[in-house]
Amino acid sequence: MKSLSVVGIGPGNELNLSILAKETLESSDLIVGYSKYVDLVKDYLPDKEYLDTGMTKEVDRCKLALEKASESKKVSVVCSGDAGVYGMAGLVYQLSVNYPGVEIDIVPGISAVLSGSAVLGAPIGHDFAVISLSDLLTPWELIEKRLKLAGDGDFCICLYNPSSHKRKDYLKKACELLLDYKSEDTICGYVRNIGRSGESYNILTLSELKDTEVDMFTTVFIGNSNTEIIDNKMVTPRGYKGL
Amino acid sequence: MKSLSVVGIGPGNELNLSILAKETLESSDLIVGYSKYVDLVKDYLPDKEYLDTGMTKEVDRCKLALEKASESKKVSVVCSGDAGVYGMAGLVYQLSVNYPGVEIDIVPGISAVLSGSAVLGAPIGHDFAVISLSDLLTPWELIEKRLKLAGDGDFCICLYNPSSHKRKDYLKKACELLLDYKSEDTICGYVRNIGRSGESYNILTLSELKDTEVDMFTTVFIGNSNTEIIDNKMVTPRGYKGL
Predict the structure, then answer these.
(1) Residue A73, SS3 per DSSP
(2) Nearest CA in chain A to B94
(3) Tens-place pLDDT, residues B138-192
(4) How far apart are CA A36 and CA B218, in angstroms?
């Protein structure tokens, strides 16, 4: 069987893995992934065969996985969160044209927009936009444009990759753009190390968020104009009447 | 213990449930939900105590769950997909102020934007917006505004509640608005009955989608300007070089 599963492993712990993801990993001959994510999986599946690659080696990693699958192995590529949200699913399909006969399937997982939301309460209870602040693969001008439009539409916004060593001021820049559309009192939140040891969260206003430094293990949420704080949680109402 | 868990059960089948969601439901004294979702859970947990309510009875359902939790029961409210994406999490927090002492926790689940994405391939491989076309709780003018802005930003778009008996032409209206910003050849897809019996999907252009009637059990995906069809799947590249 030449089969390659692209598996979203959720935030990291076994509890937030889907039953299908667990079964898929258990039945794989080989699990391929970025070393940090492979380590998370080894915690609950220590006896599998693994191949890990470094960060930013996504193309090599997916080619390696497709090659191994071509050798009639059942291979899984693991992605943090979901397989398709800034994950490897698209890249695997793009590369698969060179590996005919490999069956590909995608196993969804709980992406940070959902796992982080659960930690904060209910921040994305209405229409929302997910935007990555990483400009490694996307021009910053397009990221700016999307931030402005999402701000103008009063979307709830979830920011992936809000910071890195080289992009320490990107979250500040994003907040400054959003402040042209959203009130400085807009309720925001961020979660660090979702589902991993040291998980923490904070709820604050958009103007406070502007002056906050977060790291690359953080997911940021910006509320809409109706978002409120209830019992230390960030809650965006859907709009039900008669409460 | 006065505890209320708001549990996202994923698309419906047990396989796409998280391990935490399964454990939370198993350890509950009572499971409350819309009758259709309760029936899905009964399939794999037949021996629990259940209370179901009709559609559009969301406020009553959450009040009932909070009341039962106040009686020192461990209660779960089940939501299709995720607990916080058009789910009950926000409403439970809003109502909880009248039920002091009830501990609330949110168990995330695989929302249709992720489970549907996995069926289609990789449609949301870049920044995306999730918009509900239901105007029961949201003015249509705001939905229109968000569609236009998401179109202008070349976001991938996922539409929830694309149709109902009373809103048969809403998807058509949405596509017409998007055609002002997106090419008529934009790759789109839709998935019906995700993770349930009779699951099916279709991939088509935006102009074809405009003239397609879908039902309320369908989730719709509209690609960005880079979305392509690869081996009958809908794929939005992240932008990796050197393929």
Answers:
(1) coil
(2) A230
(3) 999 999 999 999 999 999 999 999 998 888 899 999 999 999 999 999 999 999 9
(4) 36
The reply to whether A109 touches chain B by the CB within 8 Å rule is: yes
Cβ–Cβ under 8 Å, residues A189 and A119: no
Confidence band (pLDDT; 50, 70, 90) for A53? confident
Pairing type for strands A30-34 and A50-53 reads parallel
ipTM surpassing 0.95, yes or no? yes
CB B124 within 8 A of CB A129: no
How far is C-alpha A184 from the chain's CA centre? 26
Closest-CA residue to A16 (of B142, B20, B82): B20
| Residue among B240, B239, B86, B213 nearest B158 (CA) | B86
CB contact under 8 A, B19 and A15: yes
